[in-house]
Records
---
Amino acid sequence: MPMSSFAEVALLLVLAAGIGLFGIFLRQPLIVSFIAVGLIAGPSALDVVHSDAQIDLLSELGIAVLLFLVGIKLDVKLVRSLGAVSVMTGMGQVLFTAFFGYLIGLALGLDHVTSLYVAVALTFSSTIIIVKLLSDKREIDALHGQIALGFLIVQDLFVVLAMIVLSAIGIGAGGDAGHGGGSILSVLLSGVALLVAVILFVRYAANPLTERLARAPELLVIFAIALAAMFAAVGDLVGLGKEVGGLMAGVALASTAYRETIAARLAPLRDFLLLFFFIALGATLDLSLLGAHVTGAVVFSLFVLIGNPLIVLAIMGAMGYRKRTGFLAGLTVAQISEFSLIFVAMGVTLGHVTDDALGLVTMVGLVTIAASTYMITFSHKLYALFEPFLGIFERKGTPREPTDFVATDDNDDKVIVFGLGRFGTAIGLRLQKRGIRVLGVDFNPLAVRRWRELGMKARFGDATDPEFVAELPFQGTRWIVSTVPIHPTGLSHEDTRRTLIQLSRTAGFSGRIAAASHSAGDTEVLFGAGADMVLEPFQDAADRAVELLCGAAEEDRTDIPEIATEGRVVT
């Protein structure tokens, strides 16, 4: 007796929970676990996934929400400043991969047409997987995350053009050869029209509409989902793709006062819906096609895993970015996309290539998606491993980063604050009010810019970067304060606070270090790692509230905290 769609989805959720738990036990990224669920439930194993339409619908809605949440946090000024490097890196990677991929295909004995199809398929990177990984690591707002998002959008536009050209070839074979140019022009005009619609919406409707909707928070969330789905549907209809449409929907609400509220409420829904995307991806992989070209798959996989990051690193280094930024951004293109399989499948349908080519690209997809997931998850450890060999990719002075993000004359700073969110900013403002010089550090360029707008000095940098930490003005610095948020449920298990403590001491910092904690267990770990003080924002705020309620005088607190007791801080 066949299962109902509801029963299939229920079974998939049970499998996802079980395999995901097993993956966490083995400290594996959840994306790998969820793709494994699709493989197990798909035609190559249990063959229990038959409600393709329902699963695809949930998957596509998840894609729309994911890109919507990326768009809603985009800073227009930052996009302008990163446009050049995004275009140059995106086009450079596409041309490099296509050219050398074609030559590798010929060297492996593939015919010219098959080599061309495989080479073009290898140029596509998965925006969905990369954005999900960077979001889980809280690096989508970092400089390398923003640059990666930029050249992924360039890749997506290339995907659109490639699909249109291939569709035009298919239509031309049927006798309508003039349709291809019209399709490309139609897509370009549709893109301009969609952009104009977003600009008009932002200027005249976004703020008043969201203010009215915010009176009923549930309605605001429904509206956000509806906008994401509508733009994604329009984007898909006109040939731009759901990704571009969902991103534009987010940009349409990025200037409103409620964007943080919307993002916070949609994040759990995004994660739930994307589960079905990864399951659907795993279920579409036919393992029976994988054995024909093992040697070719290994060669092409190594080319994608090593060659793509190197070309990104080289281009960004030539443009004046630091080797660390180029390396972290380059890792994001070390895999192929689900669109790669679709592209080659279209070639099979048109009779240009055989099923063997699809099997080859499928195997490359499996290897590169799994491997790059680990590479991005543990990117900082990989950088530490390869950093001694990357000097050739960095220009002297790295002009693109210091010009935008590095302050000068920092030798007399007394406190360095890592993490310029609400808590870090509040600490910085109060220290400055007391006449204490403060230097702020964050890996989010927008946070650095906001900090400077408040009249304080700031640097763009990563607390886990040994080179950056070693270059900080430690002379005369009394305190290092880390308010960087820790998200233990993400894919990255690195504790930024403990890393910062270790790197600071290694670099010769002799002052005191304070770190923020949100649990008693965390507090003990931080003291054990060498923290001199542990700030517990909720506990400290409660203590201060009681002091105020009991009539404590404001002038009693005339200096920054100096005394730490076992377990937490006395303020």
---
Amino acid sequence: MEDCERVILLGLDGLGRAEIQSFLTPESLTVLEDTLQTGCYADLKSTNPPWTPCAWPSFLSGRNPGKHGVFDFFTNNGYDKNLIDRSSVDSPTLFEVADQTGITPIAVNYPVTHPSPDLDNGAVVPGYLATEDVEFSPSQLREEYEDEYGKYVIYPEYGADSDAVQEYTRVARHRRDMARFLDTRYEWDLMAVQFQVTDSIFHDLDDREKIRQVLENVDDFVGDIINLGDDDTNVFIASDHGMGDYEWTFYVNSWLAENGYCETTTGEEQYFRQAKDELKGESGEKGPSSIVSAVGAAASALSAVGLSPRRIHQGLGTVGLDKTVERLLPEDALVAAQNQVVDHENSVAYQLLFNSLGVHLNVEGRESNGQVSPEEYDDVREELINDLSQVRDPDGNLVFDDVLPREEVYEGKHLEDAPDIVLVPRDYQYDVSGSIVDTFRRYPHKNHKPEGILISNRDLDIDPETGASIYDVAPTVAAALGLPVDSETDGEVLGPFEADERVDWDELAGEYREVADSESGPTDDVEDRLADLGYME
């Protein structure tokens, strides 16, 4: 397109003011600081919930989850769950639309972009939630890159105790190197590169100095990518959500069970589902390790004498195994050997997806063994909303700022796929877990907050009091590129850019669902990585 201005779009997962402000100086995060001094720096409101799997599709499409259909790491099929991929996102992305209009896009490491579509003009290197051996688009790119730079990796080894800074930096460097590699092969108009490690470090590391070192290295890589453009290139640096302190885990299915909404049954021990290799006994030998056998035997004995699942961890202490579990899996200790799961078919309500921050009702005609008739639906939902609104933690504080019907949060053709009730934790200080253990667990840690950041080398004229929305990114970048803005967007065009034309991106992108012939592959390894970061509890 003749009127296309080049754009560099950099995604830094998980960065918010609260955690990076002290680092954001000319002596530390130099590139970010220099960029905002020439343009703008604003808060960027995320999706609800502010989780990676639904936020990045909204970032790239400009549409709320009710339109693109992703609310969690998983989609549900009845009572079953499936890990999401590109086919789960029912909206075209910014770079797919750009490609269809003759613009050349480069997309590196953005989550939920696998399997990648075959672009006519550009390239896609998938990121988070893809398997390590995922195919790139075009397919020969991986081999060509690895011949020059060595093996391309998506994921760090979480908990790399030997040198965490080096490990996270090694992984982040691949994003910079891939951008440089593709810059030599394409006359690109849109260079979109995402860094996931800026989120992972807050989940994985407690040492602020190590976190600062990783962020400074990423900042250097961001500068190298910006240098691939010129003085006229529009630069946007944004995060999908922020990060901050959490104080509690609230086990909503345990609460639902205690209050007569949810039934439980014996199922696969969640502890073994989440265990790391050392407890799986996967050191080259088949079968469980001696530690796993000991924990399993102890748990079975405790269960046999009628001990409640939520007290099994305490019981492990009487046989000397609790400290072993805590040493190896401190974040999973309370679900060690837990063998109670939701009996979905016989429940009225439950949290089905791991991180949706929502409660599903078991509705007749919608679920295979629904317990709530369509005539009862509104009354049951209203009663449950009122009950959940009154839940208090052991300190006497309300757990939720809001408990809302889904139609007050989302809109679009996938509204029916959303949880029936949406939970908004008070100040986002509470994880909401579906495990059947104690109703509350005091658990100080870092997790996602709704306010990310937006930095640009252009003045985007953003009200500092209200900030911008994650839905604003795609239409703003589209306008900067000279693309038609999506008529279905939930965002606005920011700053000096103008939307000369509005078109439904579904029509403009054409067959964006046509992907390469390669399969996504087994997802067990990806799910284990989610468990390592606490997303599968």
